[in-house]
Amino acid sequence: MTQETSSPAGRVIAVLVALVVLIGVPGLIYVNSDGYRAGVRLGEAAAAEKGEDWAAAAEIYAEVAAGPAMQKEANDALAQLIGETLPSAPLAASAPILADLLGETPAHEGHDHGKASVPAETFTVWLDVLEKRGEGEPGPALAILDVIAAKVDAVRVPPLQERLLEAHVAEEPANVDALGRLAVILERRGDLVRCRALLEPHRASLGTTEGARVLGQLFARSGELEAADALLVPYVKARLAAFRLAQDGFDAISETAFQLYAKVINDNLAPQSLYDRSNAVSDAEAQQLFRAWIFEQMGTDAEVNVAAARRDEAGAVVPVALDLGIVKLRRSQGLAEPDARRRELEAAEEVFLAIQSAVGETDVYRLFLGQVSFWLGKEERGRALFDELLTSNARSSESLHHVASAMREVGLEGDARTLAEEAYGKATTDPERHAAAGLRSVLATDAEDRLAWLEKGDTSDPMTRASLASGRAYLAMEAGDLEGAAKGFAEAVAIYESLPEDATTLNNAAVANVSLFHATGETDRFRRATELLERAVQIAPSDPILLQNLAIDLLGRTVIDLVGDRIDLGILRSSPDLGLLRHLYVDAASRAKLIEEVRANADFIAARKALERVLVLSPKGTRPIGLLAQMAAFTRDEALSAEVLRRVEENRPDLSAEIDGARRYFAGARDEEVTEVWTTRLPRLESDLARAREAGAPATIAIAIQDVVSTRLALSRHPSSEDDADPDGLVTLAEESLAASGGTAVARSLLMDALLHRAAGRLIGSSHTFTAVHRQARRSLSRSHMFALLFANERQTGSHEQMLEDADVQRSIELRAEEIARFPESADPLDWAFVVRGRPELAEEVAAAIAANTVGKSGRRISMALAPMSAAVAIELAIERQIAGDDAGSKKVLEDAKARGVPIPEGY
Asked: 78 exposed, middle or buried (CB, 10 Å; 0-12, 13-18, 19+)?
């Protein structure tokens, strides 16, 4: 006869029956006892367990375990069910039972029993079961893992969870909850490409799940605003109400707790030591002591902590709402219809205001709302909020530091610089001084200024030491010491990459890697920098500094990929910016092909999206708008060019530093400084040219020559320079560059500049008119712009004839005519000024091309908005108006420039 094992409950029932038989009818009184009833229920549970009705058995065991009798027997039976029986049962049957017995809340309403008490090793048993059998039943396995995750080896949980989610999604591809959970894992790991591929086919059914949030934020950051808005609006709307409720609940509980602990103090029930300390200080200091004690008690108050946890959990919607607000801002900026644009702006503001309770009426709130005001184009309100914060804090060092940081983020670097210096002056502790000095260092005007402020910081801090290494390396680079610069940048990279990874260390390591590329020519450093910044932006996706740096590096990677081995960047060590691509085409067909390649490049597209996001977060900054203008000009993108123009005219970027620097330059105060910079750089460029010739790389030779010739021409414009730029030698070099390049437009332009420089040398002294223009505008205008100004002026007929007699001027005009024939759609006002005198038969054709070139016209207006002290841009705009027949407008452009302090020659 086969023996069967019996459960503890079965043994209990057998004993009870035997007792009844032995004691007879009087013993039936026992049936009314708690012990008897518990024994009966345990017997029922044992029968249910034997019949594999594990849910019923578990429910009874848990009921008895929570009752007045036989708790130990019930708990033992329950532990045996959980740890021995269920691990062999189907996971689908076990999952709801375990959730009911071990989860945070009962699976079925009406259960008031306590949680099962099971040995710790039982959870390890279940983890083993899930690892072996979970992928066969992924849904139930995930439910079980959720229950036991906090009770087992944390290292084993994430990979198992991902495996189970992968299996669950494979089994149920349309399960949006599983999709969302898997997407969150991929998002945290940075696998955004796969994340998007996983979610996008199901975007219509994601609803308000985490999948909707992840995909919506991915769309937001890639500039797909309509798709982002459609996903994020329902997600945020569904959670904002809960967030506000949790915030209000926390506020109410905190206020009640504060009053309770205040009453403890008033009733003399607080520790005597608190009263003793308060009696030894002033009334104001005593109040601070009492408040500190109250907040200390609140920090350990269970009810306050539970409310805080609920608020924080609900507060996860805040950064998502921030993204939604930015999406709506960007959408509004793309709407031409005024009412639609206003409605979208109001919707954006509504979202921002909805999350202000995350920080309350605090300094953080003023900072946040101040920045939002700038984003919304309400600069006056933003400044008022920042001023309120500073006033309420008596312009303390800490408050000045916070406002300076916010000013920097919205693009007001001049204001930020001033506030950072004030913060340093107001600091009363070393940490405050070091923090202010660190902020001021990133707002430096040049390498020496940056190093000076870094040396005021905490030189024992690894971040400061790395920044100091970079700062000294920049100075070495400027002095022509490439070996020393490379050593310093390498030291900085090593320090940054040894520190714990966060957005700041990743960004700084990226910047140091790019600098190391400039010192060594190692293009891998540039790629490394881009990868680091991509990780930094994943951590802080709304940081405008990181986004701008990433965009710059993405454009660099675009150029590196398109250049390939045609240009040796290792020799040139110059920034791989879009201008470098001008060396890759020689005619309209090759340029059109290259433009299509650039437009289709994934990094170029990503850079544009990042910059468009930066324009919202840093509306007063000049760099993002300038980069977008370059992208529009190179790709001849009329829509982008028009949008950039509108944005720059609306935002009025902060140009205070540039205007001040230009005025000092025009006054001659920077002649020695500028001359020293170019003089120091020249030997390095000549060394690069020698290396390019040695390598026998024609395109690289052409670019290296351009760097040398351009530098010598720049030097010749400064009275303090002793370099006469060797006119004949420069023309010879420019001829070599044109031949080596195969006839690129940029090489042809260089030769024209060299020829006009040589012609100018002959005309200075022999032509009174040219000599006067040169004397007044030597620092502000290139020779090409001087000639264009004179040619465009109808009153200078005699001077025109004298200039046109010069062979170099004639050749320059012929080269320009050749360029117009190759690229007629790119004709500009300088082209017209030259041909109207030297090739008048082309003037009408060129005028028509200029009128049709909307990208060029927008570009000149953008340049004037970004560089209001540029005499060259003012002259080009004035000639453009002259060509259009607007003589009054032409004159006004130059008069306005003179009023700003731009040295436009008298009489023009």
From this structure: buried
